[in-house]
Design brief:
Two copies of one chain form a homodimer. Chain A is mainly alpha-helical. Helix content of chain A is 71%, strand content 4%. Chain A has helices at residues 11-24, 36-43, 47-59, 78-102, 105-125, 134-146, 150-171, 178-193, 197-226, and strands at 33-34, 63-66, 70-73. In chain A, a hairpin with a 3-residue loop joins β2 (63-66) and β3. The structure holds a DNA duplex.
DNA sequence: TTTAAACATATTGTCGACAATAAGAGTTGA
DNA sequence: TCAACTCTTATTGTCGACAATATGTTTAAA
């Protein structure tokens, strides 16, 4: 389901996946230096594949590299996240508009079923898990798939997806926007089912704006308490 | 001016730049197999840095890699380009809207001067150079800069930028859309100067739609004559 | 005490050689 | 003639060692 496949293939791919996971979950702190020799040893491989993995992660914007000075985990500051959400709004809005004409009835039904599943999960676990769980992102990715635009899927999937997950883990402590989010998702699916692309786009844009607003507040609090 | 820097730094960076250039200019044909040993020898370096460069180019979507089967130059078929232009429309539209509020008067004046420059160049060279030249892309990139959104700049700059240049070279033989393009650029600058983001976005979206329409026709002819 | 230069250390950048895998040619059997 | 199999060859994947560069520390001079 997740666009980033399990560990298989070349060692560089494995390292890339494991590193991405560690970065996204916060196991590797933001801005932390990534020592090639140390990581290579931990993963049981040579430095060659690991360097390739770092170059790949650099392309995904999960790490930043400086020549002769090594790689560091990217730092998601307020401005970066603001930029990310602005881009997301444009891209996912477009995805929604196109998906309204391209998705099959069956796919839309599946989307609806996915939301049922989320709702059940919320009820069971007390509502605190939705927004920070992968479920929310699955929903967004399915819509991207519905646009039939491969480039869009790549951008939202392999790149932004990871940054978003990273952001989730950072702000998961005090996340409670699950109720409105699910409701907004429902509205979007309804618009899709009615084949109303304009409405679907507008709802998605609002949804993402709301998400950003919520996250922005959290970051503000975080920065405040950090002083 | 161009977002992709000159040849300096590590060997992997140099190889990455040279390869990107060769791919974009069509020197390396689409779909062509990229032999590591051969390229490493041509560039006078070992295979290590070259492999890193290929991983980087993979991230930029200029090459596609299959494990144990090597890398190939990406193939820009009709669908891929269509997807690319759809994404561009969304992103550059957004860039325009934000740039209308963020760019300084000075920057807008510079943008206007850039167009004067283009106009002079067209008069001198007979109008056939504009659309396929870098000038057009410079214009678009300057607006992306005006949005102050670093992520947007990265996306439009280092990634899509290259694919677009590639597309230009492919369809440059029969390019003649320079007149309307310049005029549309003028309209966009006017809207920016009036700080009318909505209008600027609309004009940019139309501009890109028109460009795609033009390119789509060319591809259709090309595929026709190829049979 | 501060600054700067020189050294020692750690880390990155690069190369060459070897192992593993895939692609192709050639052979053998039906 | 075609199919499947084997062997050869070419290419990719990986490792370990060395060179180049940056970092941190010590030492010496102002």
């Amino acid at each position: 389901m997740l666009p980033y496949a399990p560990e298989q293939g070349t060692l560089a791919d494995i390292a890339s996946h494991r590193l991405a996971h560690s970065i996204v979950t916060g196991e590797l702190a933001q801005g932390q230096k990534l020592n090639e020799a140390e990581l290579a040893e931990r993963f049981g491989m040579g430095r060659g594949p690991l360097r390739e993995a770092l170059r790949h992660l650099e392309g995904m914007r999960l790490v930043t590299r400086v020549p002769n000075a090594g790689a560091r985990v990217v730092v998601l500051d307020r401005k970066t996240l603001s930029d990310l959400y602005a881009v997301r709004e444009a891209l996912e809005g477009m995805a929604c508009r196109i998906a309204a004409t391209q998705m099959t009835d069956d796919e839309i039904a599946q989307l609806s079923a996915l939301l049922d599943q989320h709702e059940a999960q919320i009820k069971k676990q007390g509502g605190k898990v939705y927004a920070q769980n992968e479920g929310d992102l699955d929903f967004h990715f399915q819509i991207a798939r519905g646009s039939r635009n491969q480039m869009l899927m790549n951008m939202l999937g392999s790149e932004q997806y990871q940054l978003l997950r990273m952001c989730r883990h950072r702000t998961s402590r005090n996340a409670q926007r699950t109720g409105p989010a699910l409701q907004q998702h429902r509205q979007i699916v309804t618009a899709l089912a009615q084949r109303d692309g304009e409405l679907a786009e507008m709802l998605m844009r609002r949804h993402i704006q709301g998400a950003w607003q919520s996250i922005d507040e959290m970051i503000a609090k975080e920065e405040e308490s950090a002083e």
